[in-house]
Design goal:
The protein has 82 residues and is α+β, with helices and mostly antiparallel strands. The chain is built from one helix and five strands; from the N terminus they run E-E-E-E-E-H.
Length: 82
């Protein structure tokens, strides 16, 4: 199973001819490649899988996805501590 995580682009830059960005995932920032999402700009929300922004989503969808992921993490943690 693959999992894509929504992140907000906070910076866009060029790395040896490759369009890259810094994306914020709720306070954690990571480098992501924008080759699959050339329309993404600072402030855009993208779904990231293994370091690649694979699609762009609106802020509402990004927030709903993050809420589901947080809820899943809480369930897993509760199970492991039971």
């Amino acid at each position: 199973m693959c999992l894509g995580i929504p992140g907000r682009i906070v910076e866009v830059h060029d790395d040896a001819g490759l369009r890259m960005a810094t994306a914020d995932f709720g306070g954690v920032r990571r480098e992501v490649c924008l080759s699959c999402t050339p329309e993404a700009e600072v402030g855009s929300y993208v779904i990231v899988h293994v370091g690649f922004a694979i699609s762009q989503v609106d802020e509402g969808e990004a927030q709903r996805t993050l809420e589901v992921l947080r809820a899943m993490a809480g369930v897993v943690e509760a199970e492991l501590n039971a």
